[in-house]
Amino acid sequence: MSTRVARDRVTGTPFTRGLGIVTILGIVWLVIFGLFVTPADVNQGETVRIMYAHVPGAWLAYLAFIVTALSSAMYLWRRTRSLTWDRIAGASAEIGVLFMGISLVTGSLWGRLTWGTFWTWDARLTTTAFLFVTYIGYLAVRGLGGTHHQRARRSAVLALLAVLEIPLVHFSVEIWNSLHQEASVAGNTDVTMDGLMLFTLFLGVIVFTLMYVWMLLHRQRALTLEDMLDDSGLDRALAARRAEAGVS
Amino acid sequence: MKDAGFIIASYVVTFASIGLFSFAVLRRSRAAGRDIRPEDRPWS
């Protein structure tokens, strides 16, 4: 029984379990407020409810990719070089791709209702899709062969280049003529949103951030276990070759 | 609610994706952790 419990909580700790419970309660709260409690928008009507999933998703993707870049920089800096930073970078990029995908799909559904089309080659949409594809490429590069440090070095360099796309995506609505609206809250000193809508939007950002921390801890620990398995597999293979060659 | 299909679909896509990803992460960690003793895990 105790073995089963230990196996079921491989990457879990009391902190992650507590965090998971708080996050699930937050999701329930967000869904209730997003779908039923907040008012409809004056201009967009009920379709504004998609915002409570779409905007936090985009925020999370940016956060995850920035964490990937910072962790990569920590790995490349000799004083802090550790594979833990590399695993945090990889785990964060996976989560970022997930949330960027969510943001693209929910944005597409919202676009169909407000613009009449699921997709258009608008500046914001195109740069976002480019960012999404870039990080899929980053994950593919992480999957190439080599030692853990070779993986860490090449993916860290790529992460530091890829993060430069984020300002391009964020400011694309200001640089080019775009169908996509400018930021409603971030960097806007004149927020005209209804109080309850603004509260629910912030609730979404907080809940998604808690979710991110939970996912990051678990995924980073899973990557640590996978690396440990790789290393032990290599040790076993070397021992087998030595035994074959009669070397003690 | 007008446009309920699109609105509900956006919530389903969001939380189903998050749920599936979380499930996959836990499953992979369980598979990897099977051969690693609990005392060798840095966080336990």
Written description of the protein model:
The complex is a heterodimer of chains A (248) and B (44). Chain A has 248 residues and is an all-alpha fold. Chain A has one domain (19-39, 48-178, 195-225). Helix content of chain A is 75%, strand content 0%. Chain A is built from eight helices and no strands. Chain A has helices spanning 2-8, 14-37, 51-76, 83-114, 123-142, 148-162, 165-175, 195-245. In chain A, α2 (14-37) runs antiparallel to α8 (195-245), α3 (51-76) crosses α6 (148-162) and α4 packs parallel to α6 (148-162). Mean pLDDT of chain A is 89; it is low at 1-7. Chain B is mainly α and 44 residues long. Chain B has one helix and no strands. The chains are: A mainly alpha (248), B mainly alpha (44). Chains A and B meet through α1, α2, α3, α4 and α8 of A and α1 of B.
Task: Please indicate the percent range of residues of chain B in DSSP E strands (runs of 2 or more).
Answer: under 5%
Identify the overall geometry of chain B. Answer: rod-shaped
Query: How do the SSEs of chain B run, as a string of H and E?
Result: H
- In this structure, how is the largest beta sheet of chain B organized? none
- The rounded distance between the terminal residues' Cα atoms of chain A is 40 Å
N-to-C order of helices and strands of chain A: HHHHHHHH
Tell me the number of helical segments of chain B per DSSP (H or I, 4 or more residues long).
1
Poorly predicted spans of chain B: none
The structural class of chain A is mainly alpha
Helix content of chain A: over 70%
Alpha carbon gyration radius of chain B:
18 Å
The percent range for strand residues of chain A is under 5%
Oligomer state equals: heterodimer
* First-residue to last-residue Cα separation of chain B: 49 Å
Average pLDDT of chain B: 89
Q: In total, how many domains does the architecture of chain A comprise?
A: 1
Largest interface: A-B, 41 and 33 residues
Please give the largest β-sheet of chain A: none
